[in-house]
Amino acid sequence: MSQMNMIQSVRSALDVMMDKDPTVIVLGQDVGYFGGVFRCTDGLQAKYGEHRVIDAPIAEGGIIGSAIGIGVNGLRPVAEIQFADYIYPGLDQIISELARLRYRSGGEFFSPVTVRAPCGGGIRGGQTHSQSPEALFTHLSGVKTVMPSNPYDAKGLLISAIESDDPVIFFEPKRIYNGPFDGDPNKPAVPWSKHPGGEVPEDYYSIPLGKAAVVEEGDDLTVITYGTMVHVAQAAVNKAGVSADIIDVRSLVPLDVETLKKSVEKTGRCLVTHEASRFSGYGAELVATVQEECFWHLQAPIERVAGWETPYPHAFEWDYFPAQDRIIAGIKNIMEAV
Amino acid sequence: MTPKSRLHIPHPPSRPGEAPDFSYLALSEAGAVARPASNVPAREIESLACELVRVLDDEGAAQGEWAPDLSADQLREALRLMLLTRQYDARMQRAQRQGKISFYMQSLGEEAISIAQGMALESGDMMFPSYRNQGLFIMRGTSLVDLMCQCLSNTRDMCKGRQMPIMYHNKQANIFSVSGNLATQYPHAVGWAMASAIKGEDHIASSWVGDGSTAEADFHYALTFAAVYQAPVILNVVNNQWAISTFQGFAGGERRSFAARGLGLGIPGVRVDGNDLLAVYAVTQWAAERARQGGGPTLIEHVTYRGGAHSTSDDPSRYRPKDEWESFPLGDPVERLKQHLVNEGHWSDEQHTALIEELKEQVNEAWKEAVSYGTMTEGPKLDVRVMFDDVYSEVPPHLEKQRQELLALRGSSE
């Protein structure tokens, strides 16, 4: 066991898998010699060679499109999209090809591509370096969508993603690459070494896709979230002085409905929160699922706390970000409802 | 007066009711283009992208350095495969008109490309076809019954009822699944070829798009990646002059040949008479040899003509002269190969007529068998349970739940 931040644990997952399986290759912009703009592939090219850690042209559609062909030819590509905000030129290849290849070919062809993309805001990235586009991918049939909230989960989930014969879109919340973040930008940064999620085995382990984690247990309400917001929600719940189940869904598709159901049936109250904007956000699916599964157990309307329905603004980052105060207000609404 | 900028709207040379005019097509004499060694640097052979490699002359004689070494048996087999493709197309076109299948796309006039290229490639080479490459499936031995069952979406459909007609695949024969989206297969072919090189294998990839699809971003991604990594891939542009109703000028064909699209990236381009089976075979063999020697990609433009409608949903009489194909200077690929074989004493009109009858019979027999596995209107029907399979490698709980929900509605459950 050692201390790792999320960059190191992502790198460790790639390293473990490249060592274990010679068909695993990495490609993306700046991932090779330089080791990635976030350093997630640092040292991998020196260790595994230029044929397995490949610097790519600036063409996301080409990266994903060629990765599909590489996968069809028996290799297991992990494609890095430098920022989730840049994934859109590759959308047609993801939606029309990657997601549907197995289905359309009667189960005969498939391409086990993992697409990694740093996402989310809170890094002064403005509208082109802060987006959380996960909901777009959860609407597809045929890809899995994952977002970890700590280094331990990141490594275990990424290993499962690489091993999966299904394509996986793997979002890495970059605000928490170096440490957990409770939503208050004025507090000094906290390193992962102070958090149990920063304890990461050096060797192989995996966390199955499709299983949520209950990160905190309580009785008053259930908070359902993922990514950076797991930490914001924890801080908000503590500050609000309530006792809550906090569920990190981790795998957005497939979704662990049972864990949500069990919790909300117990607490009878539910708040859903994510950083992405609210309308047609993934939270809408969570709310609908909880409503369908747990309606007769609900004692209050389900609350949603999310990014405003504007592009991510550079100057108003902390007004846009759904921070603790908004979650606390949401909790108050739920707890005060009859 | 000062000159002003102006918007250029391309116009085809003739519209319905007007005389066809192919004077825009740059042609070379058969045998006139020199055949360079397959390993020469791209910059030394840029003229190949603008000239037109032709082997068969107007009298059906093979001319020049590109004339391939093909036996009479091989050529007769090529003719048979072209004719089989044409008979298959004709039968399926009729099936659509009879309401037996929802949609169809013929390859009329373009048969030489798939057949010649299929013959020039090795069986381990991977093909990433477009929607008008049925000849590749036929020449690699996919049974007509299998192809027909796909179009019928019946109980024997290789796609399990999930794709429109003609979106075939044949994994065993190394032919990728046809997408309904244009040019998406181009980067796949390049990626497949990259993997082949990464693994140190000898197999190459080949892909096809039409002139219209060269405008898609995927075309440009594929060329860039192929050039950067020198991927062992043959990228084909089938320039059949028409993209539904827009002529090739709307894809930029008025300025320069499609074969020249790769020159800026250092990809050799070869422009070939796509209706000349011998020339297409020779050029493909050249490009395959180049790729296998580590020479990287080649972009081949096949100059041909879409003899039929774009699809059964299209009516070309509304936008182009009805008799345009008859005036196409490169003729009909079937007639040209036939003429060559007859002139060489390897074939006769009688044999030709007899072969067409035999192939018609073969296609009709296949159709009878195919419809016995079901049609859109008559059983047996595909089991609706398969709708939920193959979305993922294993059926996840939410899809199993939806399957049971549907089965309950249909009054049966597992």
Can you tell me about this structure?
The complex is a heterodimer of chains A (about 350) and B (about 425). Chain A is of the alpha/beta class and about 350 residues long. Chain A folds into two domains: about 200 residues, 3-Layer(aba) Sandwich (Rossmann fold), CATH 3.40.50.970; about 120 residues, Rossmann fold, CATH 3.40.50.920. Chain A has twelve helices and 14 strands. In chain A, α2 links the parallel β2 and β3. In chain A, α8 packs across α12. The longest helix of chain A has 15 residues. Chain A is globular, with a radius of gyration of 19 Å. Chain B is α/β, with parallel strands linked by helices. Chain B folds into two domains: about 325 residues, Rossmann fold; about 30 residues, no CATH class. Chain B is about 35% helix and about 5% strand. Chain B contains eleven helices and seven strands. A five-stranded parallel beta sheet of chain B has the order 1-2-3-7-6, with helices on both faces. The longest helix of chain B has 26 residues. The model of chain B has no long low-confidence stretch (mean pLDDT about 95). Classes of the chains: A alpha/beta (about 350), B alpha/beta (about 425). The interface between A and B is large, with 46 and 47 residues.
